[in-house]
Q: What sequence folds into this?
């Protein structure tokens, strides 16, 4: 699959809000799950599960 930047941005924007926020903070901005948890007032476990959820969605969409 040959994805361009526009395709990647569109896929990230399709993510549910919580998953998108965590994905952007962790994968793009370099925050740790602990920092994200504090920033968003969620648990560290929730941050990790939202990131995992975002990755699953993105992997499914890329494989389509």
A:
């Amino acid at each position: 699959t040959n994805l361009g930047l526009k395709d990647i941005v569109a896929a990230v924007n399709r993510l549910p809000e919580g998953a998108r926020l965590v994905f952007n903070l962790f994968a793009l901005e370099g925050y740790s799950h602990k920092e994200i948890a504090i920033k968003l007032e969620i648990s560290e476990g929730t941050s990790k599960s939202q990131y995992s959820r975002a990755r699953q969605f993105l992997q499914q969409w890329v494989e389509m």
About this structure: The two ends are 9 Å apart (CA to CA). The CA atoms of residues 38 and 44 lie 8 Å apart. The chain has four helices and no strands. Helices lie at 5-14, 17-28, 33-40, 44-63.
